Amino acid sequence: MSDSNKKECLTNDRSLSRRRFVQMAGIITASHIFLQNKSFAGAQETIGVKSKESVDLVKRLISADGGGNAQWASKLLENAFDCKKSLLSVRYVEVRQFERLIVKKKPGDLKSWDWTLAIQAAIDMAEANGLVCVLPPGILRITAPLQMGSNSKLYISPQTTVLKDFNSLNTYSGTVMNKGGDAGVYNVVIFGGGVIKSNTGRVGKHVVFFNSSFITVHGLKIRNTYSDWTTKFQNCNHVLIYGNDTDVCSDQVLTDGWHFKGKSNKIVIANNRVRTGDDCIAFTQEVSVVDEIGDIEDVTIVNNVLDTAQSSLIKLHVRAGINAAIRRISVMDSSGESGRINKGGFAFYFSDDALSNNISDIKVLGLTGRCARSGDYFGRIVGCSDIHIENLVVYNPFRGLLVESSSRVSLERLTIADLRGAGLKISSGITIQNVDGFLISNACISGASQHGIQLGSPGKPATNGVVSGGTVFNSASTGIRLTNANGVTVENVTSYGNRNGIVEDVGSYNNRVVSNDVKYNSNTAISVIGLKSEAKGNVGFNGN
C-alpha cells in the first residue's frame, strides 16, 4: 500500500462509538471486550512483580484482557528467575554427579553416549530436595523421555543440546514429559536457553503434559520436529509459555508449535518466536470423549512472532460432534507470515464445524500478517459468536477475511491490501455471510479482486449490521456490495476508484446507505433497489 493510500485511510477514520453500534445493530458484544482495564500501577502493586520482564508482562496482560491472568503468570515468571538465581549459590544437582550412569558406547565419541539414566537420576534427586537439576554443556543424547515430577526444575544451559534419539508418537510420550502419564503433576519449571531437538528422522513430540498445573516453559530453543506436534498440553491449567524460540525446521503438516487440548485453562503464551510447518499456536477440541472432559478458557496470547508454511498462525477448532467449547481467548500485538508453500495458510482460523457457537468471546487486538504464497482466506471465522477483531493489518493476501454462520462480530480498523486471488480463488476483502449482528468500523481495503466488502450472498444473509467510516478503493468490482442483506446501515464510508461504489443487489431490503462519499467510481456510484431501503446525504450520488 502506498504512503498516500495509507494517509487516505487515516484521514477517513470516522469513528463509530460502541454505544451507537449497539443502538443500531442490537448487538451485545463479548463480555470481556468492554472490561475496563485496571490501573497498571495499582495492579502492579497488588501483584508484587519485581523484575523488568514481569512488569512488562503484567502490563501487556492487563492491556490484552484486563489482567485476569496477570497475577499467577507473573509469579511463575518470577519463580523461573529465582530458579536461575539459585544456581549462583551452588545449590543444585548437576548431572555429572551421576556419570556412572552414562552409557558410553564409544568412550571417545561423546555424541554416541546415552545420558538418559544420568539425567533422570539428577532430575529425581533435585525434585526430592527442592533443587534445580542442571544439565552440563554439550550434546546430550537421550533414548527415552525425561520425566518431570511435581516441584521439578530443569535448567538447560545455553551451551546444552538435548538430542532426542527415539520416537515419541505415543500419546503420553515426549522429549520432556510429566511423570505418571495422565496422572498429572504440578509446579514444574523448564528453562535456561538451551536446545531441545530430535535426531534426524526421529518423530514425535518434545514437551508433553497431561492433567498438570502451574507449568512454566521459559527461554528454550526447540528444533527439528518430524511428523508430529512439537508440544501437547491436555487438561492443563496455569501454564506459562514465555520467551521460547521454536523452529521445527520443516514444512511438514502436523508439526504444530504450542498445542492445547481438552480442559485447559489459564494459559499465557508471551514473547515467543514460533516457526512451523503447520499451526503455530493451536487450541482444539477434536477427539470425542478425550476432549470432552471440559472447555478451553481464559487464554492470553501476547507479543509473539509466528510463521507457518501452510496452516494457521493461531487456530481455534471444535470438530462437529464434540461437546466442549473454546472461550475467552485474547490475542494482542502479534505478527507473522502464513503460506510459505503453496498449499494454503491463515493468519487465524476460528471454526466450530457444527456451527453451534462453541467458540465464543474471542478478542484479537493488533495482528499484522504477511502472506507469502498463501492459497486460502487470510482469516476465517465460522460458527462463532462474540468475536472482536481490531487493528488487523494484512499485506498481499491471496484471499481476504471470511466471516460465516456467526453472530455478534465486531471488526474495527482493519487494513487489507492487494488481494491476489484469481479464478476460483477470487475474493472480496471482507465477506460477511449468514451472520446476524456485525460491525465493520473504519476499515481500509484496497485492491480487492472482487468486492472491497461483501455483505451477504445467495442463501447466506447478512443481517442487523453496520459499516461505518473508513475507505474502500480500487476494487475490481464494487466497493461495498449488499447481496441478501437486510437491516444494514452503511454510513460515512469513502468508496472510490472502484468499478462501482455501493450497490444493493437482489434479495436485499430495509438497508440504509447514508452520508457516504462515492465520487470517482468508474461505473455506478450508488444503486439501492430493495424494499424499504434508502440512500440519503451521499456525496457524488445524485439520486439521494
Report on this model:
It is a single chain. The chain has a domain at about 40-70. The chain is about 15% helix and about 40% strand. It has six helices and 39 strands. It has a 39-stranded parallel β-sheet that branches. Strand 1, helix 6 (about 115-130) and strand 2 (about 130-135) form a beta-alpha-beta unit. The longest helix is centred in the N-terminal third of the chain and has 17 residues, at about 70-85.
How many strand units?
Answer: 39
Low-confidence stretches: 10-40
Average pLDDT taken over every residue: 90
How big is the Rg?
Answer: 26 Å
- Coarse morphology: elongated
Instruction: Let me know the largest β-sheet.
Output: 39 strands, parallel
* Structural class determined from secondary elements: mainly beta
End-to-end CA span: 32 Å
Count of discrete alpha- or pi-helical segments spanning 4 or more residues: 6
Helix content: 10-25%
Beta-strand fraction estimate: 35-45%
Family: Belongs to the D-mannuronate C5-epimerase family.
Protein name: mannuronan 5-epimerase
Enzyme class: isomerase
InterPro entries: Beta_helix, PbH1, Pectin_lyas_fold, Pectin_lyase_fold/virulence
